[in-house]
Each structure stands twice: as C-alpha cells, then as structure tokens.
C-alpha cells in the first residue's frame, strides 16, 4: 500500500478522535454526555449546568437542587425536544422560561415547588405532547387558558398537587388529550365543579389511578369518587334550594309586596285628590 493510502485511514481516525475529544470537553461538569444527550441525574447541582452542547436534543436534570431555569441559556438549546427536571426545587414564576425551546415535545416538572401555571408558562411550546407537573404540593392555580397553545398535548398529569378546582375549558379544548392524571388532589366538589365532573363522564380521556380521584370538600362528599359523585351534585345543585336561595326569594317577594302596597297607596291618594278637585269644580259651577 502506498504511503498516501495509509495516511487516509490515519487522518480519518485522527479527525474522529478529535471530534470525540471535543464532545467530551464540551460536556458539563459532573454530567455524562452521549450523542445528542446530556444526563446530569443526581449530581446535587445547585444551578443550571453550563457548557451544554448546542445540538443537545435530550437534557436530564432529575434529582438535583436546581431552583431556577435561565430562559437565555435554555434558548441556546433550540433543538431540545426532551427536558426532564423532576425532583428539583423549581418554583415561583416560570412565565416565558421556555420561550426559546419551541421544539420541546416532552417536559417533566414533577416533584418541584410550582405554585401556578399561567398562559405565559407554556404558551411557546407549540409542539408539546407530554407535560408532567404532578407532585407539586404548592400548585394551587392553573389559569383557564393555560394550555390554549398546546393543542398537541396528549399526556397531562396534575396529580398530587394543591389544586381544588380546574376549569372545564382548560382541558376540554385540547383536541389530542388522551391521558389526564387527577388523583390525590384537594378537589372542592361544589356546584361550580359540576361541569368538570360531567365532562369526565362524557370524554374519551383516560384517567389513571381513578380510585384516588376523589372529592376533598365539602365534608358531605369527602372521599367520594369522581365522577360517580355527579348524581349527588346534580341533586344538590339542580333540584334543591340552599338557605341563601330561600332568603333571596323571601327578599324578592317582600320587595314585590312592598312595591305593590306603595303603588296601591299612591293610586289611592291620586284618586282622592282627583275627587276633591272634581267636587270643588262642580261646587264653583253651581254658585
């Protein structure tokens, strides 16, 4: 073999070795890197790792102490499709955090300290298919239009949070939703929640762990399963009047009676005045 022939394989091996070396160099500290994947699971990280390869597709930050996701650093990972941040300390305001990762398909924010979800939290994730925000005990509010832009969402888990209410339109308007986790929440099964429970019985969505989807309040419905409680709510909300309803009806009746009495009194006075003026006119004509 000629010297030039032997040099080609050597040069290819050299370039390959340099590429592998550069990949290892760009891998964040205490993380492991494979092709298009960065895994930093359980490394006690306090902050979002630096030097993540820009072509990363899968980023795993599970089981750390990260309390903040920097929107700018995330936006550099424009090809990211999978982000696992479960079991961290993320909380507070996540609005506009994911503005630069529009290709994201899978997002796991379970076991964190989230407090609310607004329209601006996930509105830029137009390709999102799986969203896990379960096991956030401080999550007490999800805005009505929180997932309005996530029309591809298929899997949504909000189990084991502090939620007491979820507007029906929040999930009803998701055309591709097939899996919805609702178990072990503090659901307040009052008349305002009846529409949501009715939607549960009529939808084609699968509700895992259905035995633990129960009412927390009011006391009379505590621990009753949803949506089996629908019949009881229909009875309570549509056929019975509460004490405040009776008070309202009594006030309306009293107002109608009082108005009628006043009207009759005024009509009587007007009739008397008319009679007096009429009789005076007749007397003046006689004289």
UniProtKB/TrEMBL annotation:
Highest taxon listed in the record's lineage: Eukaryota
InterPro entries: KCNMA1_auxiliary, Leu-rich_rpt, LRR_dom_sf, LRRNT
Predominant localisation class: membrane
GO MF annotation, one: potassium channel activator activity
Subcellular location: Cell membrane
GO CC list: voltage-gated potassium channel complex
Signal peptide: 1-21
Record's protein name: LRC52 protein
């Amino acid at each position: 073999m000629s010297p030039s022939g032997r040099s080609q394989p050597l040069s290819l091996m050299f370039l390959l070795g340099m590429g592998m070396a550069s990949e290892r160099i760009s891998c964040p500290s205490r993380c492991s890197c494979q092709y298009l994947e960065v895994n930093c699971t359980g490394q006690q990280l306090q902050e979002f790792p630096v030097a993540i390869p820009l072509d990363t597709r899968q980023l795993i930050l599970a089981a750390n102490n990260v309390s903040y996701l920097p929107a700018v650093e995330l936006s550099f990972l424009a090809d990211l499709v999978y982000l696992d941040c479960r079991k961290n300390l993320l909380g507070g305001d996540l609005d506009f955090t994911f503005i630069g990762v529009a290709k994201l398909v899978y997002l796991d924010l379970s076991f964190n300290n989230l407090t609310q979800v607004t329209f601006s939290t996930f509105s830029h994730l137009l390709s999102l298919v799986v969203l896990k925000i379960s096991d956030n005990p401080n999550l007490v509010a999800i805005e009505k239009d929180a997932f309005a832009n996530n029309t591809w969402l298929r899997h949504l888990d909000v189990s084991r949070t502090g939620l007491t209410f979820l507007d029906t339109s929040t999930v009803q308007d998701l055309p591709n939703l097939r899996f919805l986790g609702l178990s072990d929440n503090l659901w307040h099964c009052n008349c305002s929640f009846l529409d949501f429970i009715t939607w549960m019985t009529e939808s084609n969505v699968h509700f895992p762990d259905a035995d633990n989807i129960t009412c927390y309040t009011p006391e009379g419905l505590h621990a009753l399963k949803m949506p089996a409680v629908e019949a009881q709510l229909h009875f309570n909300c549509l056929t019975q009047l509460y004490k405040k309803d009776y008070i309202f009806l009594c006030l309306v009746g009293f107002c109608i009676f009082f108005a009628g009495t006043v009207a009759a009194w005024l009509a009587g006075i007007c009739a008397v005045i008319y009679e007096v003026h009429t009789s005076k006119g007749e007397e003046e004509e006689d004289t």
